[in-house]
Write a structure and sequence with these properties.
By secondary structure, the chain is an alpha/beta fold. It is built from 11 helices and 14 strands. It has 2 domains: 221 residues, P-loop containing nucleotide triphosphate hydrolases (Rossmann fold, 3-Layer(aba) Sandwich); 65 residues, Alpha-Beta Plaits (2-Layer Sandwich). The longest helix has 16 residues. It binds adenosine-5'-diphosphate and magnesium ion (MG).
């Protein structure tokens, strides 16, 4: 029997830890991301997501433990790692006075892409993120969703194998979020490995194939996203306040097949949906379509703590 070496993972961390003074931002994180994964990195604010991604992106050194990207150590082989990854931080400055093409050309030059080749590279990444028609625009004139997609184009310019995206969908409206997710799926089809972080589990549920959940710097779960789904599908619900008596709104919404159940809490409704893939837009359509004013509509985000409990309960049963 021939022993072929195990395939090299896109990311392998082993007991990765990072402290800031007394603060343990990350404790003994051992995690594998396989090549080709669209990997969700989930945790509440302060859980340690950004710290982990910054270490993988070589911007922060671990206090102990190690991390490898495609077999290269992020500390010892930092230069090589930088060429293999595209890192999109949670907040990045945009150059509002620059034109879209200028901006990408500038980053292409930073990666030493020869100028003869750069025009095509820039055109290719613009096409990929759906911004071809905006190429002559000033960045300041783009919507937030377009700016996020431009940020994505920027990290694609040197054709990296691994994308590290820190909450790229945060602050986007539902439509812009869906567009962003579609691009990420396309990139996965092209063979890229993608790690995307979020503090909202439902945002990644239908997108990712695998995920990790961290809390207070510690790994709580790592595995197929299905494993988490089983713990949360029961719970997706929306808070609604309408400009009509709650009982009337209830009746209108119960007539829709998307609705599973409705509870009335004072002047608001809590609407439970049948399928976790359903978003709240049908609620808006129904009420507005019936001439009712919609005063409030927001998802009742299931606390991650609750998810952890369900997932870990599942694991120990
Ligand atoms: N440069 C820093 N100095 C001190 N504390 C930090 C620093 N960066 C992060 N932290 C702390 O580490 C913890 C994890 O932060 P972070 O990785 O940003 O979490 P997340 O991205 O999941 O919200 C937080 O408690 C945060 O306050
Ligand atoms: Mg963060």
């Amino acid at each position: 029997m021939s022993d072929s070496p195990p395939p090299i993972a896109a990311v392998q961390t082993t007991n990765l830890s990072r402290e800031f003074g007394d603060m343990k931002a990350l404790s003994n994180l051992t995690l594998t991301v396989q090549r080709g994964d669209l990997f969700g990195f989930i945790g509440s604010n302060g859980a340690g997501k950004t710290t982990t991604l910054r270490i993988l992106a070589t911007f922060l050194t671990p206090t102990s433990g190690k991390a490898e990207v495609l077999g290269y150590d992020v500390v010892r082989d930092a230069d090589r790692v930088r060429h293999l990854i595209g890192y999109m931080p949670d907040f990045f400055g945009v150059y509002k006075e620059m034109e879209v093409t200028e901006y990408l050309d500038f980053f292409g030059a930073c990666y030493k892409i020869p100028s003869a080749q750069r025009d095509k590279t820039v055109a290719d990444v613009l096409e990929l993120v759906g911004l071809t028609e905006k190429k002559g625009f000033l960045i300041g004139a783009l919507s937030r969703g377009m700016q996020q997609r431009l940020g994505l184009a920027r990290v694609l310019i040197h054709d990296p194998q691994l994308l590290l995206l820190d909450e790229p969908a945060s602050g986007l409206d539902p439509r812009a979020r869906i567009e962003m997710m579609a691009i990420l799926q396309e990139l996965q089809r092209m063979g890229k490995t993608i790690i995307i972080s979020s503090h909202i589990l439902s945002e990644l549920q239908t997108l990712c194939n695998r995920c990790a959940i961290i809390e207070r710097g510690q790994l709580i779960y790592s595995g197929p996203i299905r494993g988490v789904e089983a713990g949360v599908t029961e719970g997706r619900s929306f808070w609604v306040r309408a400009g009509c008596p709650p009982a009337t709104a209830r009746e209108l919404l119960l007539a829709r097949t998307e609705t599973r159940q409705i509870e009335i809490k004072e002047d608001r409704l809590k609407v439970f949906v049948e399928d976790p893939r359903i978003d709240g837009s049908y609620i808006a359509e129904t009420l507005v379509g019936a001439g009712v004013r919609l005063l409030e509509l927001r998802e009742d985000e299931i606390g991650l703590e609750e998810v952890f409990l369900r997932v870990t309960e599942g694991a120990t049963q």
